[in-house]
Amino acid sequence: MEYYLSNISGVAKTEVPIKGSKGAYIQWLITKEHGAHYAVRKFTLDPQGVIPMHVHKYQETVVITKGKCKVCVADKVYEMKEGDFIFIDANVKHAFVNSDSPLEFFCIIDYADDMSIKTLDEECKGK
C-alpha cells in the first residue's frame, strides 16, 4: 500500500494484553498490515492505571502527549510529562504507572522475530 489515511477515533481501543495491567488501553494505528516495517500505537491510561514491569525483544520509543506518569526502566525511575519521550532498547525491563489524571502516549516499535511480552514479578517503585 502506498499510503494509509485514517483518524484515531476510528481505531479500535482494546485493553493492554500484559498480565497485571489495569486501566490501560491500546490502539494500533500503523502496522505491518499497512506495509510498514514498524508499528505506531496509542496508549491511554486511566488515573492510577498501570502497565506492569515487562520485557520484550523489540525496541520502542514512547512520546507522552497528555498527563504525567512514572516510568521504571532498567533499575531507574523517571517522572515523565507531556512532551517528554524515552527510547527503550530490546530486553530492557520497564513499566508505566499513571498519576491521578488521564495519560496518553504514542509508542513506536520495530517488528522483532519474537513479539512476545514477558511480565516480570517486580513492582515499579520510587517516587
Automatic annotation (TrEMBL):
It comes from the Archaea. GO terms for molecular function: metal ion binding. Residues 43-108 form the Cupin type-2 domain. Signal peptide: none annotated. Keywords: Metal-binding. InterPro entries: Cupin_2 (IPR013096), GPI/OXD (IPR051610), RmlC-like_jellyroll (IPR014710), RmlC_Cupin_sf (IPR011051). The keyword Metal-binding applies. It holds the Pfam family Cupin_2. This is Cupin. It comes from Stygiolobus caldivivus.
